Each structure stands twice: as structure tokens, then as C-alpha cells.
Amino acid sequence: MGATWTRDVAAAIDRVAPHSLAEKWDNCGLQVGDPQRPVGRVLVALTPLPEVFEEAEASGADFLLFHHPLIFRSLESVDTGAYPGTLISRSITSGLTVYAAHTSYDAAPGGVSVALAGAVGLRGPLRVVSPRGGLRKVVVFVPEEALEDVTAALSGAGAGVIGDYTRCTFRTPGTGTFLPGEGSDPYSGERGRLQLEGEVRLETVVAAHDAARAVAAAREAHPYEEMAYDLYPVEGRPEGCGFGRTGVLPDPLPVGDLVEQVSDSLGSPARLLTDGPGRRVERVAVLGGSGGSFIREAAASDAEAYVTGDLSYHDALYAESLGLAAIDAGHAATEFPCLEPLARRLGALVDVPVEVSRVWR
Is the sign of the CA dihedral 243, 246, 247, 252 positive or negative? Predict the structure, then answer.
């Protein structure tokens, strides 16, 4: 087993929480550290706090994966006597790599709100409240004998998914031409002679954040020395990418009972901000973290109640005007359920231990 480097862990995180799904105002990715540094243990936590750094130093963890960024905006100076400079300095002197997967994990398939929906007992199929991400059409020109191998490679990289269907492609036979040069090693034909080859135009869709991986997988399976392909944007959103999820309760509940269920399941008191306990709800929208800016989308999703954090007085008034029961379950409490799935999925992709912090903040 070879060494695992910071760049390897970063690439694995990008598989779980694609960096391209992050909001433009956010700061995801490597915060402090060297991509060429070896990694021995990963600690996953919600917020960069001194207690997490102490835990890492005691446990031997040298890669800290946070949901909330340590460095949120551009720094004009680093004051080592105040946050975040104290922890930036500590990271450097202690040899700790700091990485953030914030809105990239919020918007990822299987991300923050999916974990929250499971924690509060919602059933699927879960629908995205506010979609994110883009789609690409990838077209590969393949000799017929390699068609199934290239198709399988694209599928394995996440291409060809439409709803509940996988390996969705379209195939058109045709003739490809190429003239092998002096330095070439052609799969068929001869150097210096024009070759006409029966080929298939294989086309499929792929999420924009998986496009590079899909092209690389197709190239690996393709028999040609140089693979001809097209990659271009198409309208639409990839499956399961975006903020918030809606699902249904096993049985309709009065809003007051839903508040109790949310409080019990998250281990933190939730507050009902709008609507009374006499109303029964079945379809619920959830969004981990600060969800006040998504009230309109939550109401448009046909949800009857909305569970999120950091709702203001004016957020509550807006929700009430839309007929949406608003439940503030707290910023951190609505995000903690996502840490265990994040650690588990990352642990399956890297050859080092991945653990969840014991710090509950």
C-alpha cells in the first residue's frame, strides 16, 4: 500500500462534494497545507474550533476536513492572536492540513440535506428544493468492437443517468477518417495512408462535475492512440444536485408533533415560528444550515412545513404569508447528521482512517 497524499484526499473529497457545485461567494477546498504532504489520518468536523485542533493533535490526525471554512474571505493580514489567525498559525506550526467542503457538500448528491431528511424521518423519493449544477453532452467516436467497453467506462464514471435509468446512450454508425503521421502508432491502418474506419458515434449526458472523469475513463477504455470526442453544455440539471430536499412523513402529523420529532431526532430543541399545532402536515422540506433565503423555493416545492436553521423574524413572516409552517432547528443541529455519511463515503475512497470529531459545535 502506497502513501496517501493531501492531493489524493482532496480528489476523493471532490468525488463526494464536487468543488464545482460550490457557490461563487463560498471558499471551499484547501485552506491551509501542502498538496504534496502525506496524510496519515483524517478528522471530519463541522466548524474549525480550538477543541477540534486539540482532538486532532491528541489522536494523530493530520488532515482536518471541515464543513465550515476556516478562511471565508480574502485575508488582508493574519492576526495570530485572534480567530481565524490563531488556528491558521496553529495549522502551520502543527503540520495540520485544513480543508473545507461547505456549499459543495450542501449541493452534492447525498449531501447535507439528504442526511437531515433521513435524520428527521422523511421518506423518498427526495426532491431537490433549489437545483444546482450543469449538464454536459459527451460524444465519443468508437470502433464497434470497443463500443461496450467504452460505454461501461462512461457509465462507471457517472455518465448516462436519466432519472431512474442508467447507461442511457444514443449510437449512430458512420465512417471515421484519419491519416496516421510518422510518429503515430495506429490501432488500424498504416502510417502515411488515409484510413477509413467504421465507427459509432456514442453520445450520452453527464453531470458537469463528472465530465472530466468520464472523458478520462472513456479514454482509458478506448483502443485508439488518440480518442476523438466532443464535450459541450446542454440545458438541464444533474440528478440530485442542489440545496434542500423534500420528502414525506410516514404518517401526517400535527405541526407541534413534528417539532417534537425534529427536536428528538436531532438532539436539540427546535422552535416553531409559524403556524399552530392544530395543522397536520405530510410533505416536509428540509435544508441543513442557514435556510432563510430558500423559503420561496421550499413553498414552491409543495411542502407544508420547512425545517432549517437561522430563520429570522422576517423569514418567519414570509413563510407565514406563503402558508408554510417554519421550524428553526438550529444551524449546527441541522448539519451534524451529515458528518458521519461524509466520513464513511470518504473512508471508502482513501487508504487512511477517517473519523468524525467528538466536538459537538
Answer: positive
Q: Could you tell me whether strands 195-207 and 305-309 are parallel, antiparallel, or unpaired per DSSP bridges?
A: unpaired
Cell of 321: 404569508
State residue 215 phi and psi, 5-degree precision.
-65, -45
pLDDT tens per residue, range 108-153: 999 999 999 999 999 989 999 999 999 999 999 999 999 999 999 9
Q: Domain 135-234: which CATH class?
A: alpha beta
Q: What is the pTM of this model?
A: 0.91
The domain defined by 6-104+338-356 folds into 3.40.1390
Residues 6+ apart with CB under 8 A from 267: 333
- Any idea what the Cα angle at residue 53 is, between residues 73 and 85, rounded to 5°? 35
Q: Are 87 and 228 in contact (CB under 8 A)?
A: no
- Maximum Cα–Cα distance for the chain, whole Å? 82
- Cα Rg of the chain (Å, integer): 24
